Amino acid sequence: MKSHFTFSKEQRNGILLLLILIIGLQCLYFFVVPITIGVSSEDIAVNKEELAKFNKEIDSLRLVQLEQRKPKIHPFNPNYITDFKGASLGMSNKEIDRLLAFRKENNWINSTKQFQEVTKVSDSFLNQISPYFKFPEWVNKPKVKQVSAFSYGKTSKTYVEKQDLNKATPKQLQSVNGVGTVFSERIVKFRNKFIGGFIDDIQLQDVYGLTPEIIEKITNHFIVKTPRQIQKININNATVDNLVTVQHIDYDLAYNIIEQRNLRDGYKSLDELIKVKDFPVNKIDIIKLYLSLD
Q1: In a 3-state reduction of DSSP, which class is residue 164?
Q2: Pfam families annotated for this entry (predicted)?
Q3: Model pLDDT for residues 201-238, shown as the tens digit of each residue
Q4: Can you spell out the DSSP letters for 178-213?
């Protein structure tokens, strides 16, 4: 053991030098370095104008980056706004529901002003999204209708000259301007649902897709000359089961009709039916074909 702890003069001097060096470095770390850092921090000169300019540039780059992250709005037709599309644009649920209810009735929005009237959106929101509205070409540039005195679809004929609508073929109906293969076949198919055909021309309103203009063109050349014979129902003593046999009258409406009849002590005119709750006013002319007051 003695040989492990016995050092020569040179070894002892080396160990002493090593200890002095370690102690010196520790003192330098704890006392000299912090003083040096503190002094250098105080001596740093800050150019406030350059710093402000640098911060402003950083802020502008941050805004550009945020703008790029926003979802981009592409031009769209407001008639086809869905729940998801409306919510992403920032519309409220009530505004979206008003638009969907309007479209459900097969109505179309054809202007920015009409969009606001239907949805009740604010002016600021309208100004924000209206630049992205894209309406069909025919809305932005409506075509000027050329009126021709020789238009077969508009020139009305006398009763004798008109053909019987209950006997018309699809090919004959297609001779009317605006009635193609689809409409002509649809008219004949709807007519054939009833044994004996139409009662009156007014029933063309029930053919899906026919507009009032096309119906007018058809009735200029076709009319019901051999109407289907029916037994009209006395509205003042009809039962629920009687009433539900009439087009556009279901059980709920039949009960409402009878309830209103009892309150009125009988109907004096068939036009009084429009006062009945949930009555389809636009179908009253068709419903009246099946009813009478005596």
Answers
A1: strand
A2: HHH_3
A3: 999 999 999 999 999 999 999 999 999 898 999 999 99
A4: T--HHHHHHHHHHHTTSTT--SSGGGGGGSTT--HH
Angle at 184 between CA 181 and CA 186, to 5 degrees: 105
Question: Is pLDDT at 254 greater than 50 in this prediction?
Answer: yes
Report the Cα 5 to chain-centroid distance in Å. Answer: 96
Which among 102, 91, 82 is positioned nearest to 129, based on CA atoms?
91
Q: What average pLDDT does range 251-260 have in this prediction? A: 93
Q: What is the pLDDT of residue 151?
A: 45
Alpha helices (runs of H) in the chain, residue ranges in sequence order? 9-27, 33-43, 48-69, 83-89, 93-104, 112-119, 123-129, 137-140, 170-173, 181-191, 212-219, 240-243, 251-264, 284-287
132: which residues sit within 8 A by CB, 6+ positions away? 73, 74, 75, 76
Report how far residue 92's alpha carbon sits from residue 99's, in angstroms, rounded to the nearest whole number.
11
Q: Which helix (H) or strand (E) holds 223?
A: strand 222-223
